[in-house]
Amino acid sequence: MSSISLIKIKEDKGVTLVELMIALMMSGILIAALYRTFIGQQKTYTVQEQVADMQQNARAAIGKMMRDIRMAGFGNVSYVLSLAGGVNGFTQVITPGTNTITIVGGFKQIRRDNGGPILVSSSSGNQLVLNYATDEFYPDKGAAQKFISIGGFDSNTVQSRSTATLTLNKPPNPTLPIPTGTPIFKIQAITYAIYVSDGKPTLGRDENTGGGLQPLAENIENVLFEYFDANGIPTNTPSDIRMVRVTVTARTDVLDPQMKGGDGYRRRQIASNIYLRNMGSL
Length: 282
Known about the structure:
By secondary structure, the chain is of the alpha+beta class. The protein has helices at 2-11, 17-70, 78-82; strands at residues 94-96, 101-109, 120-124, 127-130, 147-150, 154-162, 165-168, 184-197, 200-206, 214-218, 220-228, 243-251, 267-275. The chain has one domain (58-281). The strands form two sheets. Strands 1, 2, 3, 4, 5, 6, 7, 8, 9 and 10 form a ten-stranded antiparallel beta sheet that branches. Strands 11-12-13 form a three-stranded antiparallel beta sheet, covered by helices on one side. The longest helix has 54 residues, at 17-70.
C-alpha cells in the first residue's frame, strides 16, 4: 500500500517555481520577437507608403507641365506677343530659366459652367457673336482676361463685350473666314517654379494674373529645365527652342530617423523630354 501511495503523490505533483519562471521567460522572448517583427513591418509599410506618395506627386507634377509645355505657342500667338507688354508682360512663347519657365499659348478652351463649349455663332468685321454669353471677357477683369485665339489659328484681344458679342482689337484674319462652331481659346502666360507653402517645398503654377504661384504638387524639392534646338544642341535662345527636358526631384513628406546618411528624407527623380508642337510655325 505504501508504494502505491508514493506513486500517486508523484503523479499529483504541480509546476515548480523554476518551471514557471522558465515558461514566463520563454513567453516574454516570443512576445518580444513578435512585437519586433510587427514594428519592423509597420515601418516598412510606412516607408513604402511615403515613397509611393512621393512618386505620385512627381508624376502628377511632370504630367501637368508636359501638357502645358507641349502646347506652348498654340493659337498662333505671334500677334498678341507683338503688342506692347506682350501677354501679361511676356513677349516670347518660352521664357527659359534653369529652375523656372514661362510659356505662352492658348491652353484653355472657353466653356460653359456645365462643360459645354462656347463657339462662334457668327462674325462681322471686328466683332464675334458667340453662342453663349460668358463672363470670361468682362472689361473690368483686366487685360489678363482678354487674350484669345479663334479656332487656334488667329490670336486677338477683346476690347469689350456686350452679352454674347465680343469686339476685338482687329478684324480676324480676312483670308480665314470664321466658320460657325469655331471654338475660342484663352491665351495665357503660365509660369512654373518652386516655392515654399506651409513649410514644404512645392511646385507652383502661376497664370500671371495677380494671384501668384498656386500649389500644384507638394514635396517637390527641385525642378530643372534644359533647352535644346531642333538638332538636339543646348540653347537658351527662345526662338530656337524645340525641346525642353524637365527633371523633377521629389522627397518624402516626413524624414526617416533610421535612414543612414543624408538628412533622413528619401528622394526620387523623374525626367522627361518634351517636344514642342507649335514652335516651328512661329
